[in-house]
Amino acid sequence: MTSSRISHLVGSIAESATLAVDAKAKALKAAGRPVISFGAGEPDFPTPDYIVEAAVAAARDPKNHRYSPAAGLPELREAIAAQTLRDSAYSVEASQVLVTNGGKQAVYQTFATLLDPGDEVLVPTPFWTTYPEAIRLAGGIPVEVFAGADQGYLVTLEQLEAAITPRTKILLFVSPSNPTGAVYSAEQTREIGQWAAAKGLWVVSDEIYQHLTYDGVPFTSIAAAAPELADRVVLVNGVAKTYAMTGWRVGWMVGPQDVIKAATNLQSHATSNVSNVSQRAALAAVSGPLNAVREMGVAFDRRRRNIVAGLNAIEGVDCPTPHGAFYAYADVTGVLERLQLASSAELASLILDKVEVAVVPGEAFGPSGYLRLSYALGDDDLAEGVRRLQEFLG
pLDDT tens digit string along 287-308? Predict the structure, then answer.
Protein backbone atom coordinates (compact mmCIF):
# COMPACT_ATOMS: atom_id res chain seq x y z
CA MET A 1 0.00 0.00 0.00
CA THR A 2 1.32 3.44 -0.94
CA SER A 3 0.17 6.83 0.17
CA SER A 4 1.21 10.40 -0.43
CA ARG A 5 3.28 12.01 2.30
CA ILE A 6 1.19 15.18 1.97
CA SER A 7 -2.60 15.15 2.03
CA HIS A 8 -4.34 15.79 -1.27
CA LEU A 9 -6.18 18.77 0.23
CA VAL A 10 -3.11 20.59 1.56
CA GLY A 11 -0.94 19.49 -1.36
CA SER A 12 -3.33 21.17 -3.77
CA ILE A 13 -2.98 24.62 -2.16
CA ALA A 14 -0.95 27.15 -4.11
CA GLU A 15 1.55 29.32 -2.27
CA SER A 16 0.43 32.91 -1.72
CA ALA A 17 1.69 34.57 -4.89
CA THR A 18 1.91 38.02 -3.32
CA LEU A 19 3.96 36.76 -0.37
CA ALA A 20 6.14 34.73 -2.74
CA VAL A 21 6.96 37.81 -4.84
CA ASP A 22 7.64 39.83 -1.69
CA ALA A 23 9.90 37.11 -0.27
CA LYS A 24 11.91 36.92 -3.50
CA ALA A 25 12.29 40.70 -3.60
CA LYS A 26 13.47 40.79 0.02
CA ALA A 27 15.95 37.97 -0.61
CA LEU A 28 17.41 39.85 -3.58
CA LYS A 29 17.62 43.03 -1.50
CA ALA A 30 19.40 41.11 1.26
CA ALA A 31 21.90 39.95 -1.37
CA GLY A 32 22.67 43.58 -2.14
CA ARG A 33 20.60 44.05 -5.29
CA PRO A 34 18.69 47.35 -5.65
CA VAL A 35 15.28 45.73 -6.02
CA ILE A 36 12.16 47.88 -5.79
CA SER A 37 9.11 45.87 -4.79
CA PHE A 38 5.54 46.70 -5.73
CA GLY A 39 4.58 43.24 -4.45
CA ALA A 40 3.21 43.23 -0.92
CA GLY A 41 0.12 45.14 0.18
CA GLU A 42 1.88 46.53 3.22
CA PRO A 43 1.95 50.20 4.27
CA ASP A 44 5.49 51.54 4.60
CA PHE A 45 4.48 53.63 7.64
CA PRO A 46 5.24 52.58 11.21
CA THR A 47 2.30 51.72 13.44
CA PRO A 48 1.14 54.97 15.14
CA ASP A 49 2.89 55.69 18.45
CA TYR A 50 -0.20 55.60 20.66
CA ILE A 51 -0.94 52.05 19.50
CA VAL A 52 2.64 50.92 20.13
CA GLU A 53 2.56 52.48 23.62
CA ALA A 54 -0.64 50.58 24.42
CA ALA A 55 1.12 47.36 23.45
CA VAL A 56 4.17 48.17 25.58
CA ALA A 57 1.96 48.79 28.61
CA ALA A 58 0.05 45.58 27.90
CA ALA A 59 3.23 43.54 27.73
CA ARG A 60 4.15 44.73 31.23
CA ASP A 61 0.77 43.79 32.71
CA PRO A 62 0.74 40.18 34.00
CA LYS A 63 -2.96 39.77 33.21
CA ASN A 64 -1.97 39.70 29.54
CA HIS A 65 0.44 36.84 30.14
CA ARG A 66 -2.38 34.31 30.43
CA TYR A 67 -4.99 32.68 28.23
CA SER A 68 -7.98 34.84 27.42
CA PRO A 69 -11.36 34.00 25.81
CA ALA A 70 -11.02 32.37 22.40
CA ALA A 71 -13.49 34.86 20.87
CA GLY A 72 -11.39 37.83 21.97
CA LEU A 73 -11.02 40.22 24.89
CA PRO A 74 -14.52 41.41 25.87
CA GLU A 75 -13.51 45.07 25.72
CA LEU A 76 -12.06 44.62 22.22
CA ARG A 77 -15.21 42.89 20.98
CA GLU A 78 -17.24 45.82 22.37
CA ALA A 79 -14.92 48.29 20.64
CA ILE A 80 -15.18 46.44 17.31
CA ALA A 81 -18.97 46.46 17.56
CA ALA A 82 -18.81 50.24 18.10
CA GLN A 83 -16.35 50.61 15.22
CA THR A 84 -18.65 48.61 12.94
CA LEU A 85 -21.49 51.03 13.71
CA ARG A 86 -19.23 54.06 13.23
CA ASP A 87 -17.52 52.96 10.01
CA SER A 88 -19.97 50.51 8.38
CA ALA A 89 -23.25 52.02 9.68
CA TYR A 90 -24.18 48.53 10.81
CA SER A 91 -25.37 47.90 14.37
CA VAL A 92 -24.20 44.68 16.06
CA GLU A 93 -23.67 43.35 19.57
CA ALA A 94 -20.26 42.38 20.97
CA SER A 95 -21.47 38.76 20.93
CA GLN A 96 -21.54 39.01 17.12
CA VAL A 97 -17.77 39.64 16.97
CA LEU A 98 -14.94 37.09 16.82
CA VAL A 99 -11.34 38.36 17.04
CA THR A 100 -9.00 36.38 14.77
CA ASN A 101 -5.29 36.06 14.03
CA GLY A 102 -5.36 38.49 11.14
CA GLY A 103 -7.84 38.94 8.33
CA LYS A 104 -6.82 35.68 6.65
CA GLN A 105 -8.03 33.61 9.58
CA ALA A 106 -11.32 35.51 9.52
CA VAL A 107 -11.71 34.74 5.80
CA TYR A 108 -10.92 31.04 6.17
CA GLN A 109 -13.06 30.54 9.27
CA THR A 110 -16.03 32.24 7.65
CA PHE A 111 -15.94 29.90 4.68
CA ALA A 112 -15.24 26.88 6.89
CA THR A 113 -18.25 27.74 9.03
CA LEU A 114 -20.68 28.31 6.17
CA LEU A 115 -19.69 25.85 3.43
CA ASP A 116 -20.43 22.17 2.96
CA PRO A 117 -18.53 20.12 0.36
CA GLY A 118 -19.61 21.11 -3.14
CA ASP A 119 -21.18 24.44 -2.20
CA GLU A 120 -20.32 27.19 -4.68
CA VAL A 121 -19.08 30.71 -3.96
CA LEU A 122 -19.39 33.51 -6.52
CA VAL A 123 -15.98 35.23 -6.59
CA PRO A 124 -15.76 38.56 -8.43
CA THR A 125 -12.53 38.43 -10.40
CA PRO A 126 -9.75 39.68 -10.28
CA PHE A 127 -9.65 38.37 -6.70
CA TRP A 128 -7.23 38.43 -3.79
CA THR A 129 -5.12 35.31 -4.12
CA THR A 130 -6.22 33.79 -0.77
CA TYR A 131 -9.99 33.75 -1.41
CA PRO A 132 -10.22 30.74 -3.74
CA GLU A 133 -7.70 28.74 -1.69
CA ALA A 134 -9.65 29.40 1.52
CA ILE A 135 -12.87 28.37 -0.23
CA ARG A 136 -11.31 25.12 -1.48
CA LEU A 137 -9.85 24.36 1.95
CA ALA A 138 -13.36 24.68 3.35
CA GLY A 139 -14.68 22.20 0.76
CA GLY A 140 -16.30 24.81 -1.44
CA ILE A 141 -15.97 25.57 -5.15
CA PRO A 142 -14.95 29.11 -6.22
CA VAL A 143 -16.83 30.34 -9.29
CA GLU A 144 -15.01 33.19 -10.99
CA VAL A 145 -17.06 36.13 -12.32
CA PHE A 146 -14.64 38.24 -14.34
CA ALA A 147 -14.77 41.99 -14.95
CA GLY A 148 -11.91 43.55 -16.90
CA ALA A 149 -10.44 47.01 -17.18
CA ASP A 150 -13.21 48.00 -19.61
CA GLN A 151 -15.71 47.58 -16.73
CA GLY A 152 -13.49 49.25 -14.17
CA TYR A 153 -13.12 45.76 -12.66
CA LEU A 154 -16.72 45.91 -11.34
CA VAL A 155 -19.00 42.90 -11.91
CA THR A 156 -22.60 43.48 -12.94
CA LEU A 157 -25.85 41.97 -11.71
CA GLU A 158 -26.25 40.34 -15.12
CA GLN A 159 -22.90 38.58 -14.73
CA LEU A 160 -23.78 37.36 -11.24
CA GLU A 161 -27.16 36.16 -12.43
CA ALA A 162 -25.51 34.20 -15.24
CA ALA A 163 -23.10 32.52 -12.81
CA ILE A 164 -25.57 31.39 -10.14
CA THR A 165 -26.54 27.70 -9.92
CA PRO A 166 -28.59 25.60 -7.49
CA ARG A 167 -25.32 24.94 -5.62
CA THR A 168 -24.45 28.60 -5.07
CA LYS A 169 -24.45 29.42 -1.34
CA ILE A 170 -22.28 32.54 -0.95
CA LEU A 171 -21.50 35.75 -2.79
CA LEU A 172 -18.09 37.18 -1.95
CA PHE A 173 -18.18 40.99 -2.01
CA VAL A 174 -15.01 43.09 -1.77
CA SER A 175 -15.10 46.88 -1.96
CA PRO A 176 -12.59 48.54 -2.00
CA SER A 177 -10.94 45.69 -3.86
CA ASN A 178 -7.63 43.96 -3.57
CA PRO A 179 -6.13 43.64 -6.21
CA THR A 180 -7.83 46.28 -8.37
CA GLY A 181 -8.66 49.17 -6.04
CA ALA A 182 -12.17 49.24 -7.53
CA VAL A 183 -14.98 50.60 -5.34
CA TYR A 184 -18.67 49.85 -5.87
CA SER A 185 -21.01 52.82 -5.62
CA ALA A 186 -23.69 52.95 -2.93
CA GLU A 187 -26.32 52.17 -5.57
CA GLN A 188 -24.38 49.21 -7.01
CA THR A 189 -23.74 47.87 -3.52
CA ARG A 190 -27.41 48.12 -2.58
CA GLU A 191 -28.57 46.43 -5.79
CA ILE A 192 -26.11 43.56 -5.41
CA GLY A 193 -27.07 43.10 -1.75
CA GLN A 194 -30.78 43.09 -2.55
CA TRP A 195 -30.18 40.60 -5.38
CA ALA A 196 -28.25 38.27 -3.05
CA ALA A 197 -30.99 38.51 -0.42
CA ALA A 198 -33.69 37.72 -2.99
CA LYS A 199 -31.70 34.66 -4.09
CA GLY A 200 -31.30 33.46 -0.51
CA LEU A 201 -27.52 33.72 -0.67
CA TRP A 202 -25.07 34.46 2.10
CA VAL A 203 -22.80 37.46 1.53
CA VAL A 204 -19.25 37.51 2.85
CA SER A 205 -17.98 41.09 2.65
CA ASP A 206 -14.30 41.97 3.13
CA GLU A 207 -14.14 45.55 4.45
CA ILE A 208 -10.48 45.76 5.40
CA TYR A 209 -9.84 48.72 3.06
CA GLN A 210 -12.92 50.69 4.13
CA HIS A 211 -10.89 53.74 5.23
CA LEU A 212 -8.90 53.94 2.00
CA THR A 213 -11.03 55.62 -0.66
CA TYR A 214 -10.21 58.63 -2.85
CA ASP A 215 -11.72 61.31 -5.09
CA GLY A 216 -14.68 61.72 -2.75
CA VAL A 217 -15.83 58.16 -3.46
CA PRO A 218 -17.53 56.86 -0.30
CA PHE A 219 -17.18 53.42 1.23
CA THR A 220 -20.52 51.62 1.48
CA SER A 221 -21.02 48.52 3.61
CA ILE A 222 -23.30 46.01 1.92
CA ALA A 223 -24.70 45.09 5.35
CA ALA A 224 -26.01 48.62 5.81
CA ALA A 225 -26.97 49.18 2.16
CA ALA A 226 -29.13 46.03 1.99
CA PRO A 227 -30.81 45.45 5.37
CA GLU A 228 -32.67 42.58 3.67
CA LEU A 229 -29.52 40.49 4.13
CA ALA A 230 -29.91 40.77 7.92
CA ASP A 231 -28.86 37.38 9.30
CA ARG A 232 -27.14 36.20 6.10
CA VAL A 233 -24.14 38.54 5.99
CA VAL A 234 -20.66 38.20 7.51
CA LEU A 235 -18.17 41.08 7.55
CA VAL A 236 -14.44 40.44 7.78
CA ASN A 237 -12.03 43.21 8.73
CA GLY A 238 -8.86 43.95 10.66
CA VAL A 239 -6.31 46.55 11.72
CA ALA A 240 -3.57 45.64 9.23
CA LYS A 241 -4.16 48.08 6.39
CA THR A 242 -5.91 50.96 8.14
CA TYR A 243 -3.41 51.36 10.98
CA ALA A 244 -0.22 49.99 9.34
CA MET A 245 -0.38 46.91 11.59
CA THR A 246 0.23 44.04 9.15
CA GLY A 247 2.61 42.30 11.55
CA TRP A 248 0.38 42.52 14.63
CA ARG A 249 -2.05 39.90 13.26
CA VAL A 250 -5.46 41.04 14.45
CA GLY A 251 -8.59 40.64 12.35
CA TRP A 252 -12.23 39.88 13.07
CA MET A 253 -15.50 38.43 11.86
CA VAL A 254 -18.84 40.15 12.43
CA GLY A 255 -21.96 38.09 11.79
CA PRO A 256 -25.05 36.33 13.11
CA GLN A 257 -24.63 34.89 16.59
CA ASP A 258 -24.92 31.25 15.51
CA VAL A 259 -22.18 31.73 12.90
CA ILE A 260 -19.89 33.51 15.35
CA LYS A 261 -20.45 30.84 18.01
CA ALA A 262 -19.62 28.05 15.54
CA ALA A 263 -16.55 29.88 14.24
CA THR A 264 -15.43 30.48 17.83
CA ASN A 265 -15.65 26.74 18.48
CA LEU A 266 -13.41 26.17 15.46
CA GLN A 267 -10.92 28.79 16.62
CA SER A 268 -10.88 27.36 20.14
CA HIS A 269 -9.31 24.21 18.68
CA ALA A 270 -7.20 25.88 15.97
CA THR A 271 -5.44 28.76 17.72
CA SER A 272 -7.36 29.78 20.86
CA ASN A 273 -7.05 33.49 21.66
CA VAL A 274 -5.15 36.05 19.62
CA SER A 275 -2.04 37.40 21.38
CA ASN A 276 -3.30 39.59 24.22
CA VAL A 277 -0.64 42.23 23.56
CA SER A 278 -1.78 42.52 19.95
CA GLN A 279 -5.41 42.67 21.09
CA ARG A 280 -4.61 45.55 23.45
CA ALA A 281 -2.88 47.36 20.57
CA ALA A 282 -5.92 46.75 18.37
CA LEU A 283 -8.17 48.10 21.12
CA ALA A 284 -6.18 51.35 21.11
CA ALA A 285 -6.43 51.45 17.31
CA VAL A 286 -10.14 50.88 16.78
CA SER A 287 -11.24 53.03 19.72
CA GLY A 288 -8.78 55.84 19.03
CA PRO A 289 -8.74 58.79 16.62
CA LEU A 290 -8.40 58.46 12.86
CA ASN A 291 -5.91 61.33 12.43
CA ALA A 292 -2.97 59.07 11.55
CA VAL A 293 -5.17 57.07 9.20
CA ARG A 294 -6.12 60.23 7.32
CA GLU A 295 -2.47 61.32 7.08
CA MET A 296 -1.52 57.97 5.55
CA GLY A 297 -4.47 58.31 3.19
CA VAL A 298 -3.11 61.62 1.86
CA ALA A 299 0.21 59.95 1.04
CA PHE A 300 -1.49 56.97 -0.60
CA ASP A 301 -3.61 59.33 -2.72
CA ARG A 302 -0.51 61.17 -3.96
CA ARG A 303 1.23 57.90 -4.81
CA ARG A 304 -1.91 56.59 -6.51
CA ARG A 305 -2.06 59.50 -8.91
CA ASN A 306 1.65 59.27 -9.67
CA ILE A 307 1.71 55.54 -10.37
CA VAL A 308 -1.41 55.58 -12.55
CA ALA A 309 -0.03 58.43 -14.66
CA GLY A 310 3.34 56.71 -14.94
CA LEU A 311 1.89 53.36 -15.97
CA ASN A 312 -0.51 54.83 -18.51
CA ALA A 313 2.42 56.62 -20.15
CA ILE A 314 3.77 53.21 -21.23
CA GLU A 315 2.64 52.03 -24.66
CA GLY A 316 0.29 49.06 -24.36
CA VAL A 317 -0.67 49.63 -20.70
CA ASP A 318 -4.24 50.43 -19.64
CA CYS A 319 -4.51 51.21 -15.93
CA PRO A 320 -7.91 52.45 -14.72
CA THR A 321 -7.70 54.93 -11.86
CA PRO A 322 -8.42 53.00 -8.65
CA HIS A 323 -10.71 54.70 -6.14
CA GLY A 324 -9.72 52.61 -3.12
CA ALA A 325 -7.12 50.47 -1.33
CA PHE A 326 -3.48 50.96 -2.44
CA TYR A 327 -3.14 48.96 -5.65
CA ALA A 328 -2.92 49.77 -9.32
CA TYR A 329 -4.10 46.95 -11.59
CA ALA A 330 -2.76 47.40 -15.09
CA ASP A 331 -3.99 45.65 -18.22
CA VAL A 332 -0.72 44.82 -20.05
CA THR A 333 -2.09 42.78 -22.94
CA GLY A 334 -0.79 45.45 -25.32
CA VAL A 335 2.73 45.06 -23.90
CA LEU A 336 2.54 41.27 -24.19
CA GLU A 337 1.60 41.56 -27.86
CA ARG A 338 4.31 44.12 -28.57
CA LEU A 339 7.04 42.10 -26.84
CA GLN A 340 5.62 38.78 -28.08
CA LEU A 341 5.33 37.31 -24.57
CA ALA A 342 2.93 34.51 -23.70
CA SER A 343 1.75 35.66 -20.26
CA SER A 344 1.90 38.34 -17.60
CA ALA A 345 3.83 35.85 -15.43
CA GLU A 346 6.54 35.80 -18.08
CA LEU A 347 6.51 39.60 -18.22
CA ALA A 348 6.78 39.93 -14.42
CA SER A 349 9.72 37.54 -14.37
CA LEU A 350 11.44 39.48 -17.15
CA ILE A 351 10.90 42.79 -15.35
CA LEU A 352 12.46 41.45 -12.15
CA ASP A 353 15.45 39.99 -13.99
CA LYS A 354 16.13 42.94 -16.27
CA VAL A 355 15.34 46.03 -14.17
CA GLU A 356 15.00 44.60 -10.66
CA VAL A 357 11.40 45.67 -10.11
CA ALA A 358 9.03 43.20 -8.42
CA VAL A 359 5.39 43.15 -9.55
CA VAL A 360 2.69 40.48 -9.18
CA PRO A 361 1.32 38.94 -12.38
CA GLY A 362 -2.40 38.65 -13.10
CA GLU A 363 -2.27 34.85 -12.87
CA ALA A 364 -2.23 35.28 -9.06
CA PHE A 365 -5.62 37.01 -9.19
CA GLY A 366 -7.37 35.39 -12.13
CA PRO A 367 -6.71 35.61 -15.88
CA SER A 368 -3.30 36.44 -17.34
CA GLY A 369 -2.66 39.79 -18.97
CA TYR A 370 -2.43 42.03 -15.92
CA LEU A 371 0.06 43.28 -13.34
CA ARG A 372 -0.72 44.38 -9.78
CA LEU A 373 1.45 47.06 -8.28
CA SER A 374 1.07 48.10 -4.65
CA TYR A 375 1.75 51.80 -4.13
CA ALA A 376 2.12 51.38 -0.36
CA LEU A 377 5.84 52.08 -0.65
CA GLY A 378 7.87 55.26 -0.32
CA ASP A 379 7.53 58.06 -2.88
CA ASP A 380 11.17 57.88 -4.00
CA ASP A 381 11.08 54.13 -4.54
CA LEU A 382 7.78 54.43 -6.36
CA ALA A 383 9.16 57.07 -8.73
CA GLU A 384 12.33 55.07 -9.40
CA GLY A 385 10.38 51.85 -9.94
CA VAL A 386 8.03 53.49 -12.45
CA ARG A 387 11.00 55.10 -14.21
CA ARG A 388 12.64 51.69 -14.63
CA LEU A 389 9.41 50.21 -15.98
CA GLN A 390 9.00 53.07 -18.47
CA GLU A 391 12.60 52.74 -19.63
CA PHE A 392 12.40 48.96 -20.02
CA LEU A 393 8.93 48.73 -21.54
CA GLY A 394 9.30 51.78 -23.76
Answer: 999 999 999 999 999 999 999 9
